[in-house]
Amino acid sequence: MVHRSYSENSKFCQLIFRSLIKKKWGVLSIIFLGFCWSLREIFTPYLIKYLVDSFEEGRIVQGDAQPFVTKFLLLVTGLWVVMELCMRLQGAMLLRILPSIRVYVRERLLEKIKQYPMDFFSKTAIGSLSEKITSFSNGFETLLQISLVTFIPIISLLSISLVILWNMDLLLGTIFSTWMFIHFFITFKMLRKSLSKTQGYATSRSILYGKIIDILVNIRIVQSFGRENFEKDYIGPYVQEELAAGQGASKYLERIRLALGTSGIVVLVSALGVSFYEWDRG
Description:
Low-confidence stretches: none
Oligomer: single chain
Shape: elongated
Number of helices: 9
Strand content: under 5%
Number of strands: 0
């Protein structure tokens, strides 16, 4: 049983890998563009800091302020335009590449399932099987989009921010590095635990959708024999099971958000406290 599960997981991993390799240049371009536009969140505040420091430290005299500010505004505007172009180009590539990957994954799954023996289809609800194929391909597309649009830019942003912090202040850099390690550790541990809950919800939802589709496919037989109330009572437990599983998964995800939100508050208070302490010491 374990061997079979490992074999199936390995096949799924191979399918995902092949789908990414098929569009490797597009995926790499999306990653690069995401890294580029994420730099805006670092450079814009840093440039404003440079402008304010220049005025405070007297490096800009009153007569020379206008040309300096004009050049500064042109630089910031140019930076935003370039980053916005990178973001829009990334969005256009996402619209082109992700649907094609989803279609490829769905076609490969269908081709694989068509090779299964006949007794598999006699024991499996067709509606449930169809829902699993659709959910897997759509879910993979969503996960890939989250990874490319959100996760990778955040990692880039955090890495560059840590480098700047380490150069500015050793203690602040240590605090944020420690927090980042703890934050990811908590996320990893809690997400692993939530996996069983989300898998249970996905399974119960797939079974429910399969039952609904099977009823609709055989609606003539149901109506011919007046079995509407029977089918309603029959599907009721599956509805309740899907509802309970969904609520359980959502509750645990809220616990994850609470834990991560708490860690964010802790690092904010710590950073502000250390910053004030360092400022007070000059």
